[in-house]
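1st attempt posting a full record on here, be nice pls
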Amino acid sequence: MWVHEIIEYRNYLKLERSLSENSISAYINDLKKLTAFLTSLNKKNIKLSDVDSNLINQFIEYLYKLGISPNTQSRIISGIKSFFGYLVLEEKILVNPTELLESPKLNKKLPDTLNFEDIDKMFLSIEMNSFEGARNRAILETLYSCGLRVSELINLNFQNLFLDIGFIKVIGKGSKERLVPIGSQAIKYINLYNENYRKNMSVKMGNEGYLFLNRRGSKISRNMIFIIVKNISINLNFKKNVSPHTFRHSFATHMIEGGADLRAVQEMLGHESITTTEIYTHLNKEYLREVVNKFHPRS
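the predicted structure (as tokens):
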């Protein structure tokens, strides 16, 4: 259904909006859910111009009845609206059936963060006398020092490390590049890992440039980063749900608590919109409340 239009839409997302392959796949999968629903209504051959707001609302109701969470519903709706917005832009349809469509109201959940003492406990719990230990310490130090996404961390390349001047070049969402400062501790442990282990490894062809490798000499996977962080937090009996993203959230929170400019934090995190960064100001308010409750004589 709509094969030609979906191929053109995919090209639009890639070439004009510069989205990553993961983001493009998510948008196309949202469309597949809609086309599967229309097929179930015996509307497999329906024209794009015949899709109206009534059909779209039936689709949203169908998602609700499936028990899909509001967050997932919201993402699917966003994908569907993007597709029909593109069709109007390209004059393939005259009326956008999703124009008045509203996403479900979401309860904003503030991300879990760790205080510096707990982050330090995670660092110090790693034994440095093995390849895995040296690599894992360098990974965690880099995550916290630079506030990286997991995908950005695993794709770190030697040619993008400018450790002598304290910067790394990060390839973020949509292949957008940004320069991020890296702290002296992260630099220290990257160098220890590289000098003692990485430099002498047998590396699989095509993986020569990657900084973080698995024992077989291939680029480390996203799943392995999650496993590393999860195992350390379990061994330390942390009650919070700690993931690699926790280091990114903690980085942003600690920066803002320390008085960093919101725009600077936005730039370092690679957020397209500052509204995404503003969630950390809510975390900051919680911190301020704790400070008042703890230290104000009348609290």
